[in-house]
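Appendix B. Chain record.
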Amino acid sequence: MLCKSMEYVIIDVETTGLSPAEGDRIVEIGAVKFKNGVIIDSLESFINPERDIPIQAQRVNNITPEMLTGAPTAAEFLPKVIDFAGGACLVGHNVKFDLDFVCFQLALIGRRLNADLPSVDTLKMSRYFLPHLKSHRLTIVANVLGVKVLDAHRALADVELTAHVFNRFLDLACRQGMESFVDLHKAFNVPLPKFQIQAHHQSALF
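C-alpha cells predicted for this chain:
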C-alpha cells in the first residue's frame, strides 16, 4: 500500500484555551513518527505557557501549573518540532487546531514549519468513512474502529491513539481505491496556517 510507506508525523497539543490569537498557549505537545503502520520515534514535552492556565482547561487536560514547573517555553522547545517534522506529512485529529497553535507560536519567535509540508486530517477521514456517527470525537472513533483507548486528553496518548486510528483509515482508503498519497492528500488535506505577526515593530509573514 503506497500511502502507508510514506512517513507521517502525528501531532497533538494541549492548550490553555481555544485561540492562540486571543492569548491561549500550548501547555503540552506530543508527536510520533509513523511509517508502514508502526510508530518509529516520538517527541513530547510539557510547555511553560508563560500565563495562567484557566481552571476550565485544567479540567479538560488534567494539566496543573505545578506539573509545568521547570518545563521549557515554546520558544525553547518548538524548534525541535521543526526538526522532528522534517519533510513528513503532518497528521492530527482536527489537525487545524494543533497547527494553528504550533504555527502561531513559531511565528512569535520568527520561525515556521516548512511551507511545503502536506497535512492530513483524521477528523475529515472519520466524517468520510464513518458518516453515520453522531460524534466524531477521537475516543468515539477509536472505539468504533476497535482501537483500545487508554489515557485520553494527554498529548502523547492522544497522538498514539490517532496513529492507530489513522492506520485503520489508511486500510479503508486502500479498499476504496485511494492507494496513492496524492489521492489521500487530495481528499483529506488541511493547508498550513499562515500568520502575520507584528513583533519589535517588524512585520513577518508566516
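Further analysis of this model is presented in Appendix C.
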